[in-house]
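As promised in the previous annual report, we have extended the structural survey to additional targets. Below is the entry for Tektin.
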Amino acid sequence: MSPILLASSLLGTHLMCHRVCVLESKAVRKSDFYRFLVGLRVDSIALLRDVPFPSMVPWFPSRALNHTPDCPSKPFGGSSDFRVDRKRASMPPTIAFPATPVTPLLLLLRLVSSFAMHANPQHDDPSEVLRLARLCVREANQKAARMQNQTTHQLVQRVKDLKYWSQEIERELQELKADNEELQRYYRRLAKCAQTTVAAGECNETCVGAQRKRIHVVESLNSRVDASLEKEKSAIGEAAKQIHDFKAIVERQLEVNTVAKNHLLRDFTLKQEAITVDHKSAAMGVDEKYRLETPEGRHLDVREGVPLQRMSELDEWIENTARNLNATAKARANSRKIVQKVVHSTREVAQMMRTEANTVEAALKDSLKTWQDWRDGLRAKLGAKEKEKKTADTAIGEIQMALRQRREPLEIALKRQSQRGLRPGIELCNDRAQHALQAELVNLKATVVTLEGQLEKARESRRKLEEDRGRLERKMHICEHNFAVDYEVLRRIRATYPQEIQSSGFLVVEKLNPK
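The corresponding structure token record, generated without further manual editing, is:
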């Protein structure tokens, strides 16, 4: 048999096999190949040796192959929690593949080239050569089947690992969704708290505007109410600022959660696609459609069909998944911290605002009580002044009556004196009648003057009483006006103060489905 025909026969036989992989040098005994190459001529061997052969990367020993863990839920051989000491976790299984695949043609040419120098030209038995060739092909096929089973096992384990990490990502997405919904719920709660705080500020401004209507008389009362309102205004402004700052923090955290969610969704989608591809790759080993195909020359390049981008290392893949999961876990932890801080701070803000509101209401109640007491006192004084005024009026009336009674005798006495002054000549003398008339006139005049003095005093007293009564009435008007203002502020304006602000916190109910 010529070398060309022998090579063609061997190649035709070997190309009909299903799976061919690398054949270790110890798989076939050298003595068998010596007998196989005995009948080959030196020129044929040289012809085959001149064929260029690609370089081959030797296999790692079988003990270097990693095996997947017993538990598929722990692909790293460690804890199932990816957040616990990820750097110390063991690496998932991997197999080192040769850089250049070994095809049936390359295998036979390599074997012929390796043992051609030891050929014995004295033996040229075609049946022996055919037997050895068939033995070589059978052992190569068996080795290829074993290697293919190992590859299928690794693909199945890889699918399990991908499913495990997909479940982890899905669980993390669900937890992130729950935490994000909680954060959004408190964001809506903060919006309600902000509206309540604005309403409290409007109530305070209305109270301050109403307080300007008061007539300032007692500075201590006015200053106390004004000071409490001013302090409440400062507290409301501080509360509004804190709520606005918390809203900004929550908005930024919601953006971070959205970014983490998008990264996880992309990673989850890629892993689902990888599961589909690897599952299909593993199924190729048992699919008859692929098992019956015969390799052709144009399909022998292992790089054909592989993505053009750089293939990432397993460490990079692990680090990317861990980075996404850790970023999501960090976002969830920050969300929970923000929620706790919001709950604590809003409770403190509500307590502060409610305390200031209670202080304002207490100051208004004290002011109302003071105005009421003062008004009652003024009413009592006005009653006393009215009695004194009536007494003065009575005295004035009596004095006027007495004056009228005394003026009639005085008029008579004056007329008598005028009449006696008409006596002629010597008859106009100071007789006893004249002396009596003169004494009567003096007495009557003194009585009238005294009564007129008493009347003047009584009138002056009544005038003073009238002035005092006027002052008391003005004070009474001031008391009633201020009492009405404070009562309006306390009962009407302060009634509009948001009742959601309590010492236990903001009693607001947020919408479950916001617009």
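Residues 1-106, 114-119 have pLDDT under 50 and may be disordered. The first helix runs from residue 3 to 14. These points will be discussed at the next consortium meeting with the crystallography subgroup.
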